[in-house]
What does this fold into?
Amino acid sequence: MSTADTIAAEFAQYVTASPTAFHAAAVARDRLVAAGFTALDEHEAWPTTPGGYVVVRDGAVIAWRLPEGAGPTTPWRILGAHTDSPGFRLKPTPVVRSHGWEQLNVEVYGGPLVATWFDRDLALAGRVVRPDGRVELVASGAVARIPNLAIHLDRNGDTGSNLDRQRHLLPVVGTGLDDRSGADAVLRDLLGDAVAWDLFVADTQAPARIGAGDAFLASGRMDNLTSVHAGLAGLLAAPADTGHIPVLAAFDHEEVGSASPTGAGGPFLEDVLGRVREGLGAGTSDAARSARGSWLLSSDAGHLVHPSYAEKHDPTNRPRPGGGPLLKISASQRYMTDARGEALFAAACESAGVPWQPFVNTNTIPGGSTIGPIAATRLGIPTVDVGVGLLSMHSARELVHVDDLAALHGAVAAFLAG
It folds into this structure.
């Protein structure tokens, strides 16, 4: 099995185990702990000895490897990513009864391509709070479906132009004809004695290799678990004797603006860096010196040129499948890459033996932003925006070339190793 095949298989396992941001953070923590990292509690004092450490806050996870000899001005190498993906979140009082059907009342989360969620086998997943205050992660099997309207009843229905986001996106879950056939039964089986919950809808179809020569991986949640997984692998592979502190920072809520205690706009990473610096005896001046010698690699999925919509892309910078990860550049600072950052990323790719591709938006389409500008503004750390190229971003099922997935892993590992 090639390196790309191995990485694709491991990533598929990670996606399958991570139907929500809460799961993605917990699975990352568990894999780090299994590799010898120490899980920390934010309520407790933290050790200051060299080693690997990880802390989870809700749907976000931050991990780092403190090397021997680290001091007050030791710089950071941070891989920034996000754990959340566009989709649907369950509303309070979620059961809707209509004409013999029982549906779930959901709220759109982020910017999904909603038409791609129709007629898919859907699960419910998230976290629950027990009467004693314990928080547990839960996930059901396939229990729901957002049904399309038959073409015979609306000859223009396949255009998607008539979608009402309140009326037409409610998953069908049962009939309610007896105690086992309705939404209440599904929720009861999933929640048990929970007194509160945060639940999302998740597609249950497993990732699959497709295309000529199995060149592609089709999967949900690749935006942005591709980057979280690459950061996780890179941190695990980082040497213990670097002259910097390698960090994985995977935030929640990027798809809705990052403004939360676990988003890139919140204090989580700043809190962690501050506590580690304090353990190293760093004062204000030391912290500033450390920041200026540090780098943040903001990794989020980007766009390959769509073969049927080439006019939507820049005329001279045209990322192709298999051409390596994207280096994102924006004059409006939607991405933070500058010439110094480009040189840094190019050197990391050269060290890893992988290609890379420049990405810019066409002038008529601003494109999306990511955590890079937000984290850079908050931390003052020089930042580079990169990511693996996809087709069908924000679809229920996105598409990546497996060589690009492997190349991102190589580049991230080289960056974290320094």
About this structure: The mean pLDDT is 95. The chain is about 25% helix and 25% strand.
